[in-house]
Design brief:
Number of helices: 11
Order of helices and strands: HHHHHHHHHHH
Number of strands: 0
Oligomer: single chain
Radius of gyration: 19 Å
Helix content: over 70%
Structural class: mainly alpha
Shape: elongated
Number of domains: 1
Length: 249
């Protein structure tokens, strides 16, 4: 990480630390969903597991990240609209540092929020027999997923015309886990819904996280999950870079 990126990262992190309500706000919705599904609907949902909170947590973590990256778009949008972005790119600094500072801020802030959600899950009875290596793999998948969605968030952050437009893209991302194995096994879904659920990225990622946390290995499914994350990240990175270079002209 170069000096410019560190300085810009420090600026963004100070903004978050001065207003920690962004982390709290992002955490509240998934925590409330977790409480609702575990204590209200959990008894009526058959997942084949002893603890519904254990089954539910991987999907809740993805929803947490999808909610959190919306603030990346918002922070970037504010920099663009305030003219701060234009000022940065006229300075004798590495221009890519401007975007990377937002990406790294997203990683740190989402890690904090995910930590809060996991702590609440522990209080609700979440337990895992995963080894240290399994947990490292979980952290790796979650980190790669965060990077993928963050680069996706950069695009509306650079191009949106309004604050609402900068964050609206996150709604489909938050909704996507509901049509996956995040809340119920896909075998319980109608066939036409199941086809979509089985072949969208959230299902493979959730299944891999669940397998690592409770089965000790993810099998070949982990490569599908990693492929989805990598593909989304590469495509979003390419488009975001193209949009950013267009703004430099």
């Amino acid at each position: 990480m170069n000096r410019t990126t560190r300085v810009l990262l420090g600026r963004l992190m100070r903004t978050i630390m001065r207003s920690p309500d962004t982390i709290i706000t992002v955490a509240i919705t998934p925590i409330m969903m977790m409480l609702l599904f575990v204590y209200v609907f959990g008894g009526a949902i058959e997942t084949g597991t002893d603890s519904y909170v254990n089954y539910l947590l991987p999907g809740i973590l993805l929803i947490t990240i999808a909610s959190g990256v919306a603030y990346t778009s918002l922070r970037l949008f504010n920099d663009v609209k305030s003219g701060l972005m234009a000022r940065f790119i006229t300075m004798p600094i590495k221009r890519s540092s401007v975007l990377w500072s937002h990406v790294l801020t997203s990683l740190v802030s989402n890690a904090l929020t995910v930590g809060v959600v996991i702590l609440v899950a522990l209080l609700m009875g979440f337990r895992s027999n995963a080894s240290l290596l399994d947990w490292l793999a979980v952290v790796g998948i979650i980190g790669l997923f965060t990077l993928a969605l963050t680069w996706l968030a950069i695009i509306p952050g650079l191009t949106a015309k309004s604050m609402e437009g900068a964050t609206a893209y996150s709604y489909p991302l938050i909704f996507l886990p509901f049509i996956s194995s995040a809340f119920v096994p896909t075998e319980t879904m109608p066939k036409f819904v199941r086809v979509f659920a089985d072949n969208q990225p959230v299902t493979s990622i959730v299944n891999s996280l669940r397998a690592l946390l409770f089965e000790g290995e993810a099998g070949s499914g982990i490569w599908t999950a990693l492929a989805w994350c990598a593909a989304i990240m590469v495509i979003a990175y390419f488009i975001a870079g193209k949009v950013f270079r267009r703004q430099l002209r």
